[in-house]
Design goal:
The complex is a heterodimer of chains A (280) and B (167). With 280 residues, chain A is of the alpha+beta class. Chain A is built from 6 helices and 12 strands. Chain A has 2 domains: 2-26; 36-262, Beta Barrel (Thrombin, subunit H). In chain A, helix 4 (63-90) packs antiparallel against helix 5. Chain A is globular. The longest helix of chain B is centred in the C-terminal third of the chain and has 25 residues, at 139-163. By secondary structure, chain B is an all-alpha fold. Classes of the chains: A alpha+beta (280), B mainly alpha (167).
Chain lengths: 280, 167
């Protein structure tokens, strides 16, 4: 017993080393259980305010670019608003359709931190629980989709960006309606992959890819990107499609968080289906 | 002692801020990133107790992790480097030579300092990059990233010795 104690005291550095490494490994492996480590990410108050104050300085250098992108979005919104006006006068069916599509609420937010050079990239926003942001809400920019909210604190929120292999949006080809998941596996921050598009679909470089209606995170038809290149690998049944992302992740500054007002109902339906399936 | 604590405290905060605000956003041919925060562990006095070095390295790593949403990865790599530090030092030092307690560039021979930071940075970066991707597929790519980032980090650390940490 005394020998053991002596040994332990003599080798305390090694034991402490093992202990700290085990703690680190525990953190690495339990990272997917976000509830447990909620405070240990960039949405906590201290970290986020460091980013926020640094960002308020750096921001001035980006203002010109931000201005241009906001002006472009403004123009686009104005023209679609005009379209809506005419449609409402034309017939009530289209008016109904527009109402159906308006079950989304947008919360404007400011990006305080963002990266493009890791294999897992995250985005920190300056809006939190106080402003109605909740986990699993989509994040969109004037150019296209950005990511999804993961954890929310009182004043800040942290989310996956598209440039994170832990998350992929559900996408579809605008022209033909075929759908598949988007995947980013590292490397170039402007290029992602579109999977599961079968060979019989006709493709062309430059085709638009938008969000599909199969996820509750984004409204249907939000811009994702355009086809950059595609090939038909031998011995497989799906295309290998590279898409150029519409959002410039290096310069995003103002984004909107999308709140799907039907989400509760949708997930209730999902639950019903799942429970029904297990009962049978 | 008090002066030491203030000095290392400021160094801790300074290195963390430089790492997360500036260097984490450096993009240099794909995802090559310099990680110079490990300099804090390297510059701790050689006479400091091992548990102090290990715990400080863990705190440093966790702080970087919280900022970069990579919980555990940097902590693992820094503790690893901190544990191996005394072995590296005894490996590269001759018995005849007198090594200063503060392992900076100005206090020691340039060759000693360079081999010290080179070995330590490579150890730290190798563990960091392999833990980060958590796979041995693409082994060569990860090794290549480790190498490029190490060169970058060693360069920045060497430069910082000439400019900031002179005393």
């Amino acid at each position: 017993m005394r020998g053991l104690l002596k040994y332990l005291i003599k080798n305390y550095a090694f034991l402490l080393f093992i202990f700290l490494e085990v703690v680190s490994l525990y953190f690495i492996f339990s990272y997917n259980k976000y509830q447990k480590v909620q405070y240990l990410n960039s949405s906590n108050r201290m970290t986020a305010s460091v980013y926020n104050s640094f960002n308020s300085v750096v921001e001035y250098f980006k203002l010109a670019k931000v201005n241009i992108s906001l002006a472009e979005e403004n123009a686009r919104l104005k023209s679609s608003a005009q379209l809506v006006d005419t449609l409402t006068y034309v017939d009530s069916v289209s008016a109904n359709f527009i109402q159906l599509n308006s079950n989304y609420r947008y919360i404007s937010a400011h990006v305080v931190n963002n990266s493009v050079n890791k294999t897992l990239n995250y985005i920190t926003l300056n809006k939190g629980r106080k402003d109605g942001v909740k986990p699993d809400m989509g994040i969109v920019s004037p150019q296209g989709i950005v990511g999804v909210v993961v954890t929310v604190q009182e004043n800040f929120a942290m989310g996956f960006s598209v440039l994170n292999r832990r998350w992929g949006a559900s996408a579809k080809l605008k022209k033909s309606g075929y759908f598949g998941p988007i995947e980013w596996s590292g490397g170039d921050y402007q290029i992602a992959k579109l999977l599961e598009i079968p060979f019989h679909v006709e493709l062309a470089v430059g085709d638009t890819i938008v969000t599909s209606s199969y996820s509750a995170v984004f409204p249907e038809g939000i811009m994702i990107g355009t086809i950059h290149s595609f090939e038909r690998p031998d011995g497989e049944s799906f295309y290998q499609i590279e898409i150029k992302l519409a959002t410039d992740f290096k310069s995003i500054s103002y984004v909107e968080v999308v709140d799907n007002l039907d989400k509760a109902e949708l997930s209730e339906l999902d639950n019903l289906i799942e429970n029904g399936a297990t009962n049978n | 002692m008090g002066r030491q604590i203030i000095k290392y405290g400021l160094m801790f905060i300074g290195l963390v801020l430089i790492q997360v605000l500036v260097l984490n956003h450096v993009q240099f041919s794909g995802f090559v990133n310099p990680y110079i925060y490990i300099l804090f562990v390297l510059l701790l006095p050689l006479s400091s107790p091992r548990y102090v070095v290990l715990i400080l390295a863990f705190l440093l790593g966790i702080t970087i992790d919280i900022f970069s949403n990579s919980l555990g990865i940097h902590a693992f790599a820094s503790v690893f480097a901190a544990y191996l530090r005394p072995f590296v030092i005894s490996l590269i030092s001759n018995r005849q030579e007198d090594i200063s307690d503060y392992p900076g560039l100005m206090q020691n021979k340039i060759r000693w300092f360079l081999s010290y930071i080179t070995i330590m940075v490579i150890l730290h970066h190798t563990v960091l990059f392999f833990i980060e991707v958590f796979t041995f597929s693409n082994f060569v790519l990860t090794l290549f990233r480790t190498f490029l980032s190490s060169v970058f980090s060693i360069f920045v650390i060497f430069l910082s010795q000439l400019i900031v940490f002179r005393d």
